[in-house]
Amino acid sequence: MIRDITIGQYYPANSRVHRLDPRTKIVCTLLYLISLFLFKNMLGYVIATIFLFAVVRISKVPVKFIVKGLKPIILLLMITVIFNLFLTGTGTILWKVGFLKITDEGLRTAVFMAIRLIYLIIGASVMTLTTTPNALTDGIERLLNPLRHIHVPVHEIAMIMSIALRFIPILLEETDKIMKAQMARGADLESGNLIQRAKNMVPILVPLFISAFRRANDLAMAMEARCYQGGDGRTKMKPLIYHKNDVAAYTITIFYVAAACVIGRFVPFRIWIF
Questions:
Q1: Disulfide-capable partner of 137 in 92, 162, 170, 230 (CB 3.0 to 4.6 Å)?
Q2: Which spans in the chain are helix H?
Q3: What residues in the chain have per-residue pLDDT under 50?
């Protein structure tokens, strides 16, 4: 389960998506994620599905690899669906047993929220899987550059986000090693109730925190040894430059957002309650 988390990992490949400017991928990803919350019918999500899987196909990232990254959110997905299914009281009652009831509005909201959550994870995963942490840092810094005029520490914010993203797969691998070491010593991490499982996690969390602090200290000392002083006056080995593919990506994404929002909000389309 720990190794199934793909957020923060980079999948090397030679694709058009990999060669895009990181600023293009960040902006296009944000536009896609925002568009998911603007649809009012199922037709909008059909268009979003086609667009998303077209990008995945072009990126040359295996679909199995992306689907594997959805396993850790199954519990969160189930909780979201159950809450929306049973706690939405408006609409026509479809099923009722005692105090539990399912309405058409609750079912519709639950399905839409599940689709949004899945597509949010897939969309964010495609961006991180096709962008190196260094490129992601440069992209975030350039996009937030106008905020420097109001004395916002843009470079430091971008560096913190990049380091945090880079440490996710490292800490996940460290957690997996610690869990296997504890299980080899006879520790039972899966049986018992919720409280017992929480207690069983203590032998994992303590060495994990110690390892995380040790890695952070080593990184800080390495940066100081290289005379790191922030982003002011620093040059880039690989400066970010827009190319024709970036213009094409912006154009396609803007066209998708406009078309999907118009169709998903204003075109009268309904299948049952959706």
A1: 162
A2: 16-19, 22-35, 42-59, 63-68, 74-87, 104-129, 133-143, 154-184, 194-200, 202-225, 244-266
A3: none
C-alpha–C-alpha distance, residues 128 and 62, integer Å:
14
At which residue do the structure tokens 């810094």 appear? 141
Q: Which two tokens stand for residue 170?
A: 């490292």
Nearest to 241 by CA among 30, 19, 15, 59: 19
Taking Cα atoms as reference points, which of 111, 34, 33 lies closest to residue 273?
Answer: 111
Number of domains in the chain: 1
Domain span including residue 119: 2-172+239-266
Please give the single-letter amino acid code of residue 53.
Answer: F
Integer-rounded Cα radius of gyration of the chain: 22
178 occurs within a structural domain: no
Which helix (H) or strand (E) covers residue 19, if one does?
helix 16-19
What are the residues facing 195 on neighbouring strands?
A: none
Please report the pLDDT score of residue 31 as a whole number.
95
pLDDT at 273: 66
User: Do 11 and 127 form a contact (C-beta atoms < 8 A)?
Assistant: no
- CA–CA separation, 75 vs 37, rounded Å? 22
Burial of 95 (0-12, 13-18, 19+ CB in 10 A): exposed
CB atoms near residue 268 (< 10 Å): 6
Query: In the block, which residue shows the tokens 């260094």?
Result: 134
- H or E element, residue 103: strand 100-103
pLDDT value at residue 84: 84
Domain contains 262: yes
Give the pLDDT of residue 1: 53
Residue 15 lies in a domain: yes
DSSP 152: -
CA pair distance 67, 169, nearest whole angstrom: 17
Question: Has residue 130 been placed in a domain?
Answer: yes
